[in-house]
Structure prediction request, 214 residues.
Amino acid sequence: MRGQFITLEGSEGAGKSTNVDSVCAILDSAGIDYLRTREPGGTPMAEALRDSMLHKWEEQVNPLAELLLVFAARAQHLENIVKPALDKGRWVVCDRFTDASFAYQGFGRQLDLTKLETLELWVQGSLQPDLTLYLDLAPDVAETRIAHRQKDRMEGEQREFFERVREGYLARARQFERIVTVNAGRPLAAVQVEVGSVINRFIQDSRPVADRNA
Ligand code: TMP
Prediction:
């Protein structure tokens, strides 16, 4: 049986990394074999593409080049890491995936969404996450939380950009049932409790019916 594919999304400052840790800890205690990875990245070549995409270039970065970089990294990551793991029945926990391309490049950079859909189909075929946790945070709160951080090229964008990114995530959450929106404006502990209950329910629902009734 193919493994389950879980992705986490959220703005800078939403506590995404800590919540990826929580998800992995729950899978560990449930005895589930999984692979933890991230996008852009997850293979040596895809990590190099990530560095290039987040680098603060002195030249203007063309939004289309940015989009193609994330999809090039994704093509590499999917073929070499994600698909082989899922095919072996391992679960995959991925820190960001294609919802981020729709939110950041589609809504944030205002690229044509049909172009993204074409790339998505080309690179992924029918592969989609089974569950996506979207940690939702208002950009003004996010800004305060990451004020002290050294910012990469994306994190240095203006508030309006992040307003559009958020709008993109929320629009996708309305469109796809697999996306669960979690209010990340609350204290981290409360967010972790909710993330934990979503993951536990998902594990329960993923078990074969015979196991569930045992
Ligand atoms: P993060 O690992 O800290 O979330 O950083 C990854 C950055 O890359 C973040 O700013 C979102 C951005 N990104 C895109 O713009 N498009 C994508 O498709 C992905 C996966 C990430």
Observations:
- The chain has a mean pLDDT of 96.
- Residues 52 and 69 are 8 Å apart (CA to CA).
